[in-house]
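Figure 2 data, in text form.
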Amino acid sequence: MHLLSRQWIAVVILCTFRGALTQLVVNVKTQGGEVIKETITANISDDSVVLEFPQNDGTYVTQLIDFKQELQIFKVIVLGEEELGQSQYQVMCFIVRFFKSNFISSDAMSKLRQKNPGTVRSPEEDRRTEEVELDVSVDISASNILSPHIPHLCALAPTSTYASDQDIKLWATQRRELDGDWSLVSDAIHHLPTRGVARCGDGGRDLANPCACHYQVCIPWYPCGLKYCKGRDNSGKAVSYRCGIRTCRKCRNFSYFVPQRHLCLWDD
């Protein structure tokens, strides 16, 4: 028995089908009071979900969840500051482990419907901000062993794709085909300096110095779980059925090494 509550029916603004893809568009109010438009695409065939949105400052954020490989990728496109000699834009990718309990499945996502397209949504739960240290860079040309989505999604970030050594080792241990063989993924990563590196915001005026950069990525609204209700079937037997979703907000503060401070001008 699969029912969606009227509350959830009013959540998603658009639902279109393209083969195995289901796309949803949601108006969301951020913690700062701004209204943005999130697009969420569920792909049942490869068991993935992509959430993306533009921020009002021109930054574009993409979150891809790879349920098969149990990892997620955050891609951020930041507009450059031309007066400081930066290029038109800068692209970073952050790769972290993913726990399936933190997001509804791609199949559940594909079944969501809604009405009331003008409604602006706010999350029910504000989850804590997570500090994430990324101490390895990922070689895009060899990253397919981590996830087939990385080479495509992070193609514009060949020298600015980052991950955690601890996350990848644990992920490799859990992958049956790797059987804990770290050598199979070691060619895809390069360790970065983590000790004795000053924070970019404390690096003075010299934009050529290496430093530790910090960047916060906030997902202001996402379906973080299913809700279940109790009822009875036609025979009177007690049953539980899906009756909606729980929505959350979560921020992550990513810290990572950059070879020059001008690649992290926001960290002041």
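Caption note: The chain has five helices and 15 strands.
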